[in-house]
Structure formats: C-alpha cells, structure tokens
Amino acid sequence: MSTSDPLDQQRLKTHGLAWRLFSASEVLLGALIVIGHNVFHLVPNEVPILLVLGLISVRVRDGRWSAIGFRRPESWLRLVLIALAAAVLRIVLGNFVIEPLAAHWWPPIHAPAGTEHIGGNIKMALLWLLIVWTFAAFGEEISYRGYLTLRAADVGGRSTAAYWLATSWCQCSSVTGITIKVRPGFSIQAWPVSF
Fold this sequence. Notes:
- The protein is mainly alpha-helical.
- The protein contains five helices and two strands, in the order αααααββ.
- It has a two-stranded antiparallel ribbon with strand order 1-2.
- The two termini are 26 Å apart.
C-alpha cells in the first residue's frame, strides 16, 4: 500500500484523533485476543476471530478490500519471481543456517502428531494442504499483516515509519507464547517485547 495514496491521507485528516483512537482500540483488542489464546489459553484460536473482525473493520472503515492488499499486482512476473526468491531463501537459510545453529541449543524438529498419515495418502495430503493454506496463508495474512498492521499504521497516520513499526509489532504479536524448553518437564514462557 502506498503511504502517499491521496484518498488514504484525506481520510486520515478528516477523521483525525477519533479515527486514530478507534484504530488504537482495535489494535489493543487484537493484542488481547492474541495473548488470550497464545499465553493464557482463555480464547479459542485467534485467527478466525481476527479474520472476521478484520474483514468487517476494513470493509466498514476503509470501504474497499484493496486497503489490505486485495488488488491485482502491477506485474505478475515480478510477483512470481519475488515468491520464488523468498521460497528459495527460506529453504536455504532454514536447512543450512538456522536449523544447524538451532540444533546446538534445542532438540531436533519433530513433525506434529498425525502427520505420519499424510505420506503416501494423496487425499489426506490434499486435505491438510487445503486446511493449512486456508487457515495459515489466508487467515493469518489477513488477520496480522492485513488488519492489525493497517490499524496500527492508522495510529501513526499511515506514514512510512508507522507502517514499519506496525509491521514489526505484528511480527512480534504473531509469535506470542513461544515456549522455550529448558530441560524435560520444565519450560519458560517467552513474552515478546511488543507486549
């Protein structure tokens, strides 16, 4: 999203402080939902809740889906090349840098329970691919990178700095509740800096 979009700048100017305070309250509610699920386990999974709140908020307050990135890319080729480069970078860094370094401190990575039924079963593989893509790719991207980032940037007037800070905050909030295993039977709940 361009921070110099005249329509966005005009909306923020006409709505002023009340608009920013309402955005701040949405960010606070989002943070409470995330912490309520990931840390205190009082709220069911936060993604569907944030997805519904986000879609309603963006449609009512912004009036268009392009506010969260639903628009045709300027160049499909550029988009595909960026996606391929990101995938290669993630696989190479994960396999040759991050996992070997992490192996010095943490136990080896184990697949989640139930994934042993996926190998060799195309129906099960397609079902889980659909679930993961729908839930993680679509739901989390709209919830965190679309809705919460947009509202946090609203608080800062949608300036470039506001988008950078909002993106950093949403990255931290999406990893809330990481548990660090110290030894068998004992763990420490890690709290991100953004809260």
